Each structure stands twice: as structure tokens, then as C-alpha cells.
């Protein structure tokens, strides 16, 4: 299981690096220290990914360079070989001592992944050997947490390598990280770090041009998508390192906000690449925002400034009603003029704080038809500053006799695949949004809180391509003890309408037990009807 990023879209590291860091983290090593120079400049990213048209697995990241390993308390050891048989005994000895052993293999020899770049080498980690079956257990993080290879197949893979790649790599822990020395290196890295923000300037100019912007973006898309993974992922690792080295948590929060905004930009371009429909102004506004964030965050970090009261956000726009049912209303508002570091919005009903949202819309529960409510919102930024409340909207909802009971209700899930595919998407009433579990989970679940125990007879599941082949619909009154009310062992995906259910409960859970794909489980929507 990949436990460093836990979000596939943030992983920008090559196969060997992510496997080694993941192994060290699983072994209890404090890997957040390793990110002290993780932040990659946008200038470097632009040169490598846009000018040279590289893919992210070819990007020369700053993470886990061998020159840093001594300070990190690690000693890499390589065992050279000519033929697999020459080092089999050594391999078994290492595995018996619970060592993960890394080996290169030719991409064309990899039996479990046919999508690797042709004529390249690929890293796998050997974790165990089963004497009775003569099989080795393999990890190929991030996509394959457990595989089994026959000894003959592994031997062939190793023997087919060029001599320069024939070695086993493992690690000895010689000491804990030299934290004082590493912190000094981090401080020097921050002091010397420069970024002309060329990456952002290039795309600002492109989006403002009168040329064939859409076709150029489409041609660039694989490299642009990888570049945004590098920017988002490297700031994620750098933020965690800042916290680990004792920097004020506000610096961590700054770079986490930047990472999330880059991830949103990545999603914007991903949707455009699929639909071939580009919202140039939306993309331009987001790029300009991230560029300003990069500049201000670096200035604050270099200056050591933590008094950020001057960044108080402006007042959000007046809320408006988007939709409602008999118990909930969905509202939206415009962002304030000064919104650079805004991370969330507080929602007030009749003067009482009733919820929050990281989007420009939110849901208010426990409302009654034909009653008028005073609704307002307030912006909160990454520094903890809050804005003045918005102007108050007086909103009355109308009764709806044929309502979807799940619409806009609270949702809880076993996992979410980043901010893009979050749990609330299954009840937001928007056809183009979906929830996805992380792909590492074999069993995942998601449930809707109806607010009170309710009888229902129909559940409609709208699956994305990554559907559950085997799943159970369950109900509960306390979200602890669950009762099975429907089970399917041969799910087909698409829209599955389950009728004539004798259902009763406050919480309705979809318990997914078997995947139809190697990715996570994914639902566009869950609808529940009386």
C-alpha cells in the first residue's frame, strides 16, 4: 500500500524512489525529514517537463539523493550479480531478515503491467519467499501492493538485464537522522531557493493569446498533467518537512494550500482534455492565484514572518439558494475580492454557525418547508483570520413530495481519493462529480446520514467505470451496528436501481467488497427514495 502521498495525483516520484520511501515509512522511519529540499522550482519543472517534454518518471527530483542518505541515517548496500542463481542464497538471507530488496527489471519483462514505457527499466521490491510454491512476493508501489512471481520468472527478469543494472539494493539503518545538520541544510535550501515562476508566466501568456490555445494545450496535456503533479506533490512533501523540523505550522499550511490549488488546476485541465472544452478564464484566474501564492509564501518563509493579521480576507458575496428538499437547502455565494489564502467558509443559519465548506457552495441541514431562514457566510483563511459576515439572505424552501432522501445529506467514507473525488459528491446533485476511494483499499465503504431513522424502498447507485462487482447495502441507527438489507455478488456497474427494499434506518451504507478494476471504487451518486 502506498502510504507516502495516499493520493495518486500527487505522486510524482519515479518508481524506485516512491518504493524506497514507502518501504522506509512502513518500516517506521521518519521519512518526513527526507523532504527538506523537496520543493521543486517551477522554472525547473518548466524546463524538464514543457521544454524537454519529459514524463514525470524521468524528472530528476531532489528526494532521497544518495548524497543525503548518511545524514538521514541510511546506508544503501548493493549486491552485484551476473546471474540470479549467483545471489539467490543472499536474497533469501535478506528476506529472512525482513529486508526489502529492490531490483531493476526490463519493462518488457514485467508480466503484471503492460503499460510501462517501452525500452525502459522498472523497479520492483521483493518482500518474501514461499519455499513450498517457489514463489516470491513482490510489491510494485504505487499500483500493486502485493504480487506473486514464480522463481523462474523472476530469475528470467533479472538475467535479462544489462550488466549495469544487475544488482540488488537494500538498506541498513546506521543511526537516526542527524536532525540538526539536516535542519541547517533546510535553512540553507530556503535561503538559496529562487524561482522565476516561468512555468506560470508561460501558461498565462498562452491563455491570453489569440492563437490555437486549445489544440496546443491538448498536445501539451500529458506533460502539463505531470508538471502539475510535480508542483503539487513536491509542495505536499515540503510542507510536511517544515512541520517535522519544527517550523511554525502556518508555513506548513501555506504550502498545503498551494498544493491543493495546484491539484484543482490539474483537475481543471484533466476535464478539459477529456471534453476538449477549455474554460480559459477560469484556468487563467487559478494560475494567476497560484503564482501569487508561490511568491507570497516564499517571501513569508524567507522573512520568518508569522504575524499575518494583515491578510484578513474580504467579505463573501450574499448567499443564494441553488436547490432544496424537505430537510436541506443548498446555497452558493461569490468569493470575496481578497481571497488569496481563503481555505473555507463558515455557514450561519439564523445567526448560529451550522456548518462549513471548502467550496463556494454548501448544504444546510434540518430546515423545514415554508419557513424563512436568515442565511449568511463568513470566509476563513489559512492563518485563522475571519472576514466580516456576508449580507444576510432570507430564504424560504418549498415542500417536495418526491424527494431523493440522500440529496445534500452528510456523508462518511472509508477514504477519499484527494479533494477532487470527495465523499460529498455522491449527494451534491451534480452529475459530473463523483466519489472515489483510494485504490490501495480492497474493501471500501461510504454511508449517508439521513438525519433520522427513515423507511425507504428504493436505492439507486450510479457507478463510474470503477464499480463494485460485489457489494452490500446496509442500514443502521447508530453507524456502528449494521444490518444487511441487500447483497449483490455480480454487479455490472452503470446505474443499478434496487427496488422493493424493506429498509429502515438513519445511516445507509454501501459496503464494497470486490473491485471490478484495479482502481478504487467510484460512485457518481447514491439516491434513496421512500
From TrEMBL:
Gene3D superfamilies: Galactose-binding domain-like (2.60.120.260), Immunoglobulins (2.60.40.10)
Pfam families attached to this UniProt entry: F5_F8_type_C
Protein known as: F5/8 type C domain-containing protein
InterPro entries, per database record: FA58C, FN3_dom, FN3_sf, Galactose-bd-like_sf, Ig-like_fold
Organism: Paenibacillus aceti
Domain Fibronectin type-III, chain residue ranges per copy: 315-400
F5/8 type C domain location: 394-530
Entries under SUPFAM superfamilies matching the protein: Fibronectin type III, Galactose-binding domain-like
Amino acid at each position: 500500500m502506498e502510504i507516502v502521498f495516499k493520493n495518486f495525483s500527487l505522486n510524482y516520484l519515479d518508481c524506485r524512489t516512491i518504493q524506497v520511501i514507502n518501504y522506509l515509512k512502513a518500516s517506521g522511519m521518519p521519512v518526513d525529514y527526507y523532504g527538506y529540499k523537496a520543493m521543486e522550482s517551477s522554472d525547473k519543472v518548466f524546463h524538464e517537463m514543457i521544454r524537454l517534454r519529459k514524463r514525470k518518471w524521468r524528472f530528476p527530483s531532489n528526494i532521497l539523493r544518495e548524497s543525503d542518505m548518511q545524514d538521514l541515517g541510511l546506508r544503501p548496500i548493493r549486491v552485484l550479480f551476473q546471474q540470479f542463481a549467483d545471489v539467490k542464497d543472499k536474497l533469501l538471507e535478506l528476506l529472512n531478515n525482513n529486508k526489502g530488496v529492490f531490483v531493476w527489471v526490463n519493462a518488457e519483462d514485467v508480466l503484471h503491467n503492460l503499460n510501462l514505457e517501452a525500452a525502459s527499466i522498472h523497479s520492483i521490491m521483493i518482500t518474501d519467499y514461499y519455499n513450498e510454491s517457489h514463489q516470491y512476493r513482490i510489491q510494485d508501489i504505487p499500483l500493486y501492493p502485493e504480487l506473486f512471481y514464480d522463481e523462474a520468472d523472476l530469475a528470467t527478469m533479472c538475467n535479462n538485464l544489462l550488466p549495469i543494472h544487475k544488482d540488488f539494493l537494500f538498506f541498513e539503518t546506521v543511526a537516526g537522522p542527524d536532525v540538526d545538520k539536516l535542519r541547517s541544510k533546510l535553512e540553507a535550501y530556503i535561503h538559496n531557493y529562487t524561482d522565476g515562476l516561468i512555468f506560470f508566466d508561460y501558461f498565462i501568456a498562452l491563455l491570453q493569446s489569440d492563437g490555437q490555445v486549445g489544440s496546443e494545450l491538448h498536445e501539451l496535456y500529458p506533460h502539463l498533467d505531470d508538471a502539475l503533479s510535480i508542483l503539487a506533490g513536491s509542495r505536499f512533501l515540503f510542507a510536511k518537512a517544515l512541520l517535522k523540523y519544527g517550523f511554525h505550522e502556518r508555513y506548513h499550511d501555506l504550502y498545503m494550500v498551494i498544493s491543493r490549488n495546484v491539484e484543482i488546476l490539474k483537475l481543471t485541465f484533466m476535464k478539459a482534455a477529456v471534453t476538449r472544452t477549455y474554460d480559459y478564464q477560469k484556468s487563467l484566474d487559478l494560475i494567476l492565484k497560484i503564482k501569487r501564492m508561490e511568491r507570497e509564501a516564499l517571501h513569508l518563509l524567507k522573512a520568518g514572518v508569522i504575524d499575518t493579521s494583515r491578510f484578513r480576507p474580504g467579505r463573501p458575496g450574499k448567499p443564494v439558494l441553488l436547490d432544496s428538499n424537505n430537510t436541506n437547502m443548498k446555497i452558493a455565494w461569490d468569493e470575496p475580492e481578497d481571497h488569496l489564502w481563503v481555505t473555507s467558509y463558515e455557514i450561519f443559519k439564523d445567526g448560529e454557525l451550522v456548518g462549513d465548506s471548502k467550496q463556494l457552495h454548501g448544504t444546510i441541514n434540518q430546515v423545514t418547508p415554508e419557513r424563512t431562514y436568515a442565511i449568511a457566510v463568513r470566509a476563513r483563511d489559512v492563518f485563522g483570520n475571519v472576514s466580516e459576515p456576508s449580507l444576510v439572505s432570507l430564504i424560504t424552501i418549498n415542500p417536495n413530495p418526491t424527494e431523493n432522501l440522500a440529496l445534500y445529506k452528510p456523508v462518511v467514507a472509508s477514504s477519499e481519493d484527494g479533494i477532487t473525488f470527495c465523499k460529498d459528491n455522491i449527494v451534491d446533485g451534480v452529475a459530473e462529480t463523483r466519489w472515489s476511494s483510494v485504490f490501495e483499499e480492497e474493501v471500501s465503504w461510504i454511508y449517508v446520514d439521513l438525519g433520522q431513522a427513515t423507511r425507504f424502498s428504493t436505492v439507486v447507485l450510479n457507478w463510474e467505470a470503477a464499480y463494485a462487482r460485489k457489494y452490500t447495502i446496509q442500514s443502521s441507527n447508530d453507524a456502528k451496528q449494521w444490518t444487511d438489507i441487500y447483497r449483490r455478488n455480480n454487479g455490472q456497474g452503470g446505474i443499478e436501481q434496487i427496488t422493493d427494499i424493506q429498509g429502515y434506518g438513519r445511516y445507509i451504507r454501501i459496503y464494497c467488497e470486490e473491485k471490478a478494476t484495479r482502481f478504487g471504487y467510484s460512485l457518481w451518486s447514491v439516491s434513496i427514495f421512500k
